[in-house]
Amino acid sequence: MATYKVALALLLLYGAISLQATSGKACPLYCLDVEYMTCQSSGDEKLNPSCNCCLAPKNCTLHLSDGTSLFCKPN
Question: Do residues 55 and 29 touch, judged by C-beta distance below 8 A?
Fold first, then answer.
């Protein structure tokens, strides 16, 4: 019985490591109060906003409702 539990624990650990390696980067689960988004590729066109920089295309700027902005740089 103990061998079964050890094998199951190792299998779960291996699965968790494999999932992390294939998924790349995990996105945070929060949304900013974004009014609109602009991207270098679209010039000054106001685009539908993304929740945060993890979900937005890289080289885009999120314009927040409080008047500030957040540039989403590439990794």
Answer: no
Q: What pTM did the predictor assign?
A: 0.63
Which residues lie across from 36 on neighbouring strands? 63
Transcribe 19-71 into DSSP letters: HHHHH--PPPS----EEEEEEGGGTT--BPPPSSTTTSPTTEEEEETTS-EEE
As a whole number of angstroms, the distance between CA 58 and CA 40 comes to 9
pLDDT in tens, 5-51: 444 444 444 444 444 444 566 888 899 999 999 999 998 899 999 99
Q: Which of 74, 9, 66 is nearest to 40 (CA)?
A: 74
Torsion of CA 42, 52, 23, 40, to 10 degrees: 20
